């Protein structure tokens, strides 16, 4: 996988060797930033150097949050046991939050699923900070006790007002169980149901002029609304699921399949094939002719009649086909679609939007970008990078020593390098790019555009100014109305940044060479 196509989103990455064996599994809040850090020239450790030397392929799975990425990382490590993870990662199960089954239940932490006989388990929580934050929130909001053994003396938490203190008889068992029920709703992710119940309770207190209780309930509602973290990747289930989603572009189907084993997302598979009228049915028939069907198959649209019976026949036990419209299964379906876009369409989607913004039909396939670099007016150099279908085409990168432009004259330097590049392509009768990008504002753009007119080359050209990431076109002094966080603008920024990096690298190389001489 090309590093430039890795998304800047949370998820897991898998480094693979030339045989496809997984060497290492990691998680990241920003996949692109984290994965790219491994390939910087500066050595980190000998162990990492060895790992990087063996990497031949990179696979990523995007998640909706860093918490989901942590859970998925744990699942993948336990499943594949990558050799570079063994000494670096603890593949044990993560801790649960437990509410005991006592008359006045206590809330605490349990690390063993066998603890289920002593109460209800919630989780697992892969992040200790996340677990502790939620536990602290519940204790402060619902005042459940945490003591292992109830006494008849009030503890410090009781004096601080963070425990309902059933040990002192301050609260009845039904009243305490109501608080337990509220905590249960929260831990199961039923936040909206809990808020609805609390709003009714607050209205009741207000109607009976119990304003202090109404204020307490209001504060609980506000706190719950601010707590928004649900875990979808790992759920307490005994059955296995497959999630299939697809995207049709032109005459081609791009399909992804997620494996969910006992509630845990463990892996994905990707397929590309020509579109037919019944492509979904054909895929299901062919795939499960050699793979055991899961307990449940989650799809974005219903297959042909009889498919459920057919899969049940293959599995020998009942197979359920589900087409979810909401809830966590719909979330997993959407997550699969998101990964599909990342795997196949990140570059194409950005190019399509760029083409629309620039009124180019079809969208530009080959983009070349120029950048000028110098050190306080000395040692001026230029770079030209080429992107094909939204990805770097490093074989066609070029670098130039500026020969005719004066010190600090970026306009003349831009004109020189553009003239040298496209005069040569004309002499060699080589293909021209679909779009040219120059780093700078209207001044640099005018210099480059003038050269193209002199060469009679009607190639679309734009410039991007660093400060506000504004994009200019010839003959217009104001920038295009393009959001700088839009996919099209981000693509141009990425190409410009690559040209800048390439120019800086060349300038440093020449400076070091000059110092040695």
TrEMBL record:
> Which SMART domains does this entry report, sorted A to Z?
GIYc
What is one term from the GO cellular component aspect held by the record? excinuclease repair complex
- Please report the name of this protein according to its UniProt entry: UvrABC system protein C
Alphabetically, the GO molecular function entries are: DNA binding; excinuclease ABC activity
Tell me, in one coarse class, where this protein mainly resides: cytoplasm
What region holds the UVR domain? 192-227
Give a Pfam family name: UvrC_RNaseH_dom
What's its job? The UvrABC repair system catalyzes the recognition and processing of DNA lesions. UvrC both incises the 5' and 3' sides of the lesion. The N-terminal half is responsible for the 3' incision and the C-terminal half is responsible for the 5' incision.
Q: Can you name the source organism? A: Methanospirillum purgamenti
Keyword ATP-binding belongs to the record: no
Q: Which family does it belong to?
A: Belongs to the UvrC family.
Query: What are the alphabetically sorted keywords of the record?
Result: Cytoplasm, DNA damage, DNA excision, DNA repair, Excision nuclease, SOS response
Q: How does it assemble?
A: Interacts with UvrB in an incision complex.
HAMAP family with a match to the protein in the record: UvrC
Tell me the Gene3D superfamilies matching this sequence. Answer: GIY-YIG endonuclease (3.40.1440.10), UVR domain (4.10.860.10), UvrC, RNAse H endonuclease domain (3.30.420.340)
For this protein, the record's CDD domains field holds:
GIY-YIG_UvrC_Cho
List the subcellular locations.
Cytoplasm
Q: Where is the UvrC family homology region profile domain?
A: 276-452
Is Transmembrane helix a UniProt keyword of this protein? Answer: no
Taking every annotated instance into account, which residue ranges of this chain make up the domain GIY-YIG? 8-86
| Record-level GO BP terms | nucleotide-excision repair; SOS response
């Amino acid at each position: 996988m090309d590093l430039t196509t890795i998304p800047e989103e949370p998820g897991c990455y898998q480094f693979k060797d030339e045989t496809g064996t997984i060497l290492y599994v990691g998680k990241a809040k920003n996949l692109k930033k984290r994965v790219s850090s491994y390939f910087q020239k500066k050595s980190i450790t000998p162990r990492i150097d060895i790992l990087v030397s063996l990497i031949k392929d990179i696979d990523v799975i995007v998640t909706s949050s860093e918490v989901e990425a942590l859970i998925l990382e744990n699942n993948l490590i336990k499943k594949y046991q990558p050799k570079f993870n063994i000494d670096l990662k603890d593949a044990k199960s993560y801790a649960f939050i437990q509410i005991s089954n006592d008359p006045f239940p206590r809330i605490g932490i349990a690390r063993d699923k066998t603890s289920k006989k002593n109460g209800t388990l919630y989780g697992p929580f892969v992040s200790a900070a996340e677990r502790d934050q939620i536990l602290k929130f519940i204790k402060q909001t619902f005042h459940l006790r945490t003591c292992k053994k109830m006494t008849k003396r009030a503890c410090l938490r009781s004096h601080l007002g963070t425990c309902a203190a059933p040990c002192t008889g301050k609260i009845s068992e039904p009243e305490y169980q109501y608080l337990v029920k509220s905590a249960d709703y929260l831990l199961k992710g039923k936040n909206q149901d809990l808020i609805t119940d609390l709003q009714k309770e607050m209205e009741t207190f207000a109607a009976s002029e119990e304003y202090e209780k109404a204020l307490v309930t209001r504060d609980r509602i506000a706190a719950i609304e601010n707590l928004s973290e649900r875990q979808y990747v790992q759920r307490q289930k005994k059955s296995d699921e497959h999630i299939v989603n697809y995207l049709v572009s032109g005459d081609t189907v791009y399909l992804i399949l997620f494996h969910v084993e006992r509630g845990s997302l463990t892996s994905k598979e990707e397929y590309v094939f020509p579109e037919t009228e019944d492509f979904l049915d054909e895929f299901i028939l062919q795939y499960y002719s050699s793979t055991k069907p899961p307990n449940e198959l989650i799809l974005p649209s219903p297959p042909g009649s009889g498919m459920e019976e057919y899969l049940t026949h293959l599995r020998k036990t009942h197979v359920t086909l589900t087409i979810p419209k909401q809830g966590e299964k719909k979330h997993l379906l959407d997550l699969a679609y998101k990964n599909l876009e990342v795997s196949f369409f990140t570059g194409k989607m950005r190019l399509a939007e760029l083409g629309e913004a620039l009124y180019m039909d079809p969208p530009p396939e080959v983009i070349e970008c120029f950048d000028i670099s110098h050190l306080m007016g000395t040692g001026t150099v230029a770079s030209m990078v080429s992107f094909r279908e939204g990805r770097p085409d490093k074989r066609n990168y070029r670098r130039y020593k500026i020969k005719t432009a004066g010190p600090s004259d970026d306009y003349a330097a831009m004109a020189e390098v553009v003239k040298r590049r496209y005069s040569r392509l004309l002499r060699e009768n080589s293909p021209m790019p679909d779009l040219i990008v120059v780093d700078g504002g209207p001044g640099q753009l005018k210099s480059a555009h003038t050269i193209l007119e002199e060469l009679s080359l009607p190639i679309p050209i734009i410039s991007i100014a660093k400060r506000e990431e504004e994009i200019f076109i010839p003959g217009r002094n104001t920038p295009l109305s393009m959001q700088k966080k839009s996919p099209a603008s981000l693509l141009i920024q990425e190409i410009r940044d690559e040209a800048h990096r390439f120019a800086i690298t060349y300038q440093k190389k020449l400076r070091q060479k000059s110092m040695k001489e």
